[in-house]
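Handoff note, outgoing to incoming analyst
You'll be picking up this chain. Sequence as last confirmed:
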Amino acid sequence: MKILGIESSCDETSVAVVEDGVKVLSNVVVSQIDEHRLYGGVVPEIASRRHCESIVKVTDLALEEAGITLDDIDGIAVTYAPGLIGALLVGVNFAKGLSMAKNIPLIPVHHIRGHIAGNYISNGVKPPFMCMIMSGGHSHIVEVKSYTEFNIIGRTRDDAVGEAYDKAGRALGFCYPAGVEIDKASKLGNPDTYKLPKPKVEGSEYDFSFSGLKTAVLNLINNSKQKGEEVNVNDVCASFQKTVSEIIADRLIKATKQYRYKKIVLAGGVSANSGIREKMEKECKKNNFELFMPPLKYCGDNAAMIASQGYFEMQNKKFAGMNLNATASLPITDEKFDII
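Most recent structure output, in case you need it:
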């Protein structure tokens, strides 16, 4: 079965064709990062407009690359939540138009579920497993019971880990997106130069709080300026990355042990971070866990992961009608659409 996937939740317009949930026939991604970099972050109105301008062209390219037409498509999977509401609406309404025009089933896909599915198309892992989803908007430890059953074990109470990277990076003088720059600079620094806090969350041993860590970096920079001292940017980056990696690894390993899993999966844009990958490889080897990480091309937002998850949602008969709407915020365990 061939699924056409559409992703437009933030600043990438992407369309892909995936066969049977695992075989990628095409995956076209048009990024807006260069434009948003001028403003220090994603501007929602600009993102929505660029999606409108790109989505038809990207769809045509994806079908051409796959060597098929819409007549060969068995289902249309689209990200409907969560994300920037204007950006989501572009993809959702375009998918509804295609579905109506060609009488093809419409499959709503939760964006975080899609990130998890990025591993199905890249390394062949199958549920059940414990998963850490990390991005600019999400930080979740999720028990993946099946392709369509999820249990949230822990989540951020404030900033997502990618958001903390971007805010700390901006204070250090890096351009958006700053997470990549911190990752590069950390390789040149000493991770033990600065002692940064590891905030604990009251009432949950698995929830995260990255706001305090981000604030500690800002205070470090401001205090040094007031004293006339020069901050070693590479050392700050190395110390920050080491602290983040330890926070994530500590909670993820502990959850995996408690829930008696042997497989750990990383997903989302921040799963491309080399420091986190190295830390998790070390900890999984120590604890005799299998570790699965998507290649870099499937870490960020892309439609192949949406098409993959769409296939498994389709197997579970999760179809929506023309009243499907976009939703800016929605837990991975919830569904906000009428099943037809």
